[in-house]
Write a structure and sequence with these properties.
heterodimer, B: alpha/beta, four-stranded antiparallel β-sheet, 12 helices, about 15% strand, globular
Chain lengths: ~150, ~400
């Protein structure tokens, strides 16, 4: 199967590979997929105090399309608010990378990873608020998790 | 990186197919041009020449496997040979019983005909293999019943290269009065294979795995005692009525020549290719941690190395070494999204099956290529591990099994 130029570019020059401190209260970590399925994506996003994504890092165990999908979304989420990041859809990822049908699940995983990372961040903020009882706004309830986060 | 100039792309997928040996091609060419006759034409010299060439090829192929040329039935390839052997025997010997035995690690060209027979009312026992991929002879013996028509066990596995003890299997089948079929495709020409010594009744062969052309195969059908088959292709009654259809003379000539070369050079080639495989294996195993060889180390084809690099997904690995042609047991290389059923049958965990790479070395592999590939693989495995969340977690001491992963594939 031939890969699109964009997949090859992201695979060979992956953007934002790395690790953020998962214990940082401003960092949300999403870990989705499963080793048995051959795809595990970890997306970490760090929010500024005013709720804008200022950094994103990923590590992915998976095929070239999975690596490219996660690399792409790290670029896309930067500078976005939670609401803006949550509207990123797998179809946009698939379209941008010209993924064939058999690789659509890679883009689904990338969307899941964004949602999981944001949910983790919200949960942390919720926990902090509950502890200090000083949060200015009531934290939004975490969305039901599709996948495990650590 | 090795500085020796090697020409890319490098072919290390010899289990998949092989290039036609130039000597084979030379032998074939006249039969496309001046000697184009139909081997079934009895009335003129064009036919006689074609027939002579076919008979010579039968003899060459027979010689390679310890058979007579008269026992060779030409087909379009090993898939057809497997189908003819299994379905043909099941249909012909239906009165004897309704049971067949095979291994879970067989090629799909054996497993799928078995499945079809099941739908037609036959019963099939699919034997498990041991952790090293070898058959459990006790289980085989227990599986053979008076109702068993045929047992089918491959000579060597296409993914892990594991060589089954055909002599012992053949002896058991003979003792129990069960026909013994072997898909010998991966082993012939590379390791000794003798139908009499191993009591094989039916053997599937193909030319393109032994440096012959694609599109031609053969089924060895024992004559003493005579094995009967129901033809799966009806027509002009060619090939003793077992496989109708005009013979493809140039391809058959190429098959014969390829068999002749294999017989003459097998021993020296096996030594040379085996040494190259060991060199590749040593380099990889010495430089990379968390790496496992799949299948028996001792009973393995000389050119096979099937290896799992933990925490690195196979297709990503293949993309990283895209100038090297290899294959992987990763689901990402198949439409089904399931990892290799062969590795799963050995008890290899799914994640390690996804991380497997099959290197296949052969006649034209050079030491410079091996060194280049070894260095490249080592570099890329390290790079991909740096990108792997699983590798990072494992290094932090997190037990990956303790995590509740998503269930859907």
């Amino acid at each position: 199967m031939a890969y699109s130029d964009k997949v090859i570019d992201h695979y060979e020059n992956p953007r934002n590979v790395g690790t953020l401190d998962k214990n940082d209260p401003n960092v949300g970590t999403g870990l989705v997929g499963a080793p048995a399925c051959g795809d595990v994506m970890r997306l970490q996003i760090r929010f500024s105090d005013d709720g804008v994504i200022e950094d994103a890092k990923f590590k992915t165990f998976g095929c070239g399309s999975a690596i490219a999908s996660s690399s792409l979304v790290t670029e896309w989420v930067k500078g976005k608010t939670i609401e803006e990041a949550l509207v990123i859809k797998n179809t946009q990822v698939a379209e941008e990378l010209a993924l064939p049908p058999v690789k659509i699940h890679c883009s689904v995983l990338a969307e899941d990873a964004i949602k999981a990372a944001i949910a983790d961040y919200k949960r942390k903020k919720g926990t902090t608020a509950a502890k200090t009882e000083a949060a200015p706004h009531a934290p939004e309830k975490s969305q039901p998790q599709k996948s495990q986060t650590v | 990186m090795n500085l020796t100039a090697v020409k890319t792309p490098i072919y290390m997928d010899y289990h998949s197919t092989t290039p036609v040996d130039p000597r084979v091609l030379d032998a074939m060419l006249p039969y496309f041009k001046e000697d184009f006759g139909n081997a079934a034409s009895r009335s003129h010299v064009f036919g006689w020449r074609a027939d002579e060439a076919v008979e010579k090829a039968r003899g060459q192929i027979g010689d390679l496997i310890g058979a007579s040329g008269k026992e060779i039935v030409f087909t379009s390839g090993a898939t057809e040979s497997d189908n003819l052997a299994i379905k043909g025997a099941a249909e012909f010997y239906r009165e004897k019983g309704n049971h067949l035995v095979t291994l879970k690690t067989e090629h799909k060209a054996v497993l799928d005909p078995m499945t079809r027979l099941e739908r037609m009312g036959f019963e099939v026992t699919y034997l498990s293999v041991k952790k090293d991929g070898l058959i459990d002879l006790t289980e085989l013996e227990a599986a053979l019943t008076p109702k068993t028509i045929l047992a089918s066990v491959m000579l060597a596995n296409n993914e892990i290269g594991v060589i089954q003890p055909l002599k012992e299997i053949g002896a058991l089948c003979r003792k129990k009065g069960v026909l013994f079929h072997s898909d010998a495709v991966q082993g012939i020409g590379k390791i000794p294979f003798d139908v009499d010594d191993m009591n094989v009744d039916l053997a599937s062969l193909t030319a393109h795995k032994i440096y012959g052309p694609k599109g031609v195969g053969a089924l060895y059908v024992r004559r003493k005692p005579r094995i009967r088959l129901a033809a799966q292709m009806d027509g002009g009654g060619h090939e003793r009525g077992m496989r109708s259809g005009t013979l493809n003379v140039p391809l058959i000539v190429g098959f014969g020549k390829a068999a002749e070369i294999c017989k003459a050079e097998m021993e020296s080639e096996a030594t040379r290719v085996g040494a190259l495989r060991d060199r590749l294996e040593d380099k990889l195993m010495r430089s990379l941690e968390l790496t496992e060889i799949n299948g028996s180390i001792a009973h393995r084809l000389p050119g096979n190395l099937n290896i799992s690099f933990a925490y690195v997904e196979g297709e990503a690995m293949m993309m990283a070494i895209k100038d090297v042609a290899v294959s992987s047991g990763s689901a990402c290389t198949s439409a089904s999204l399931e990892p290799s059923y062969v590795l799963r049958a050995l008890g290899v965990e799914e994640e390690l099956a996804h991380s497997s790479i099959r290197f296949g070395l052969g006649r034209f592999t050079t030491q410079a290529e091996v060194d280049y590939v070894a260095d490249l693989v080592i570099e890329k495995v390290k790079k991909l591990r740096e990108m792997s969340p699983l590798y990072e977690m494992a290094r932090e001491g997190i037990d990956l099994k303790s995590i509740q992963w998503a269930e859907a594939h």
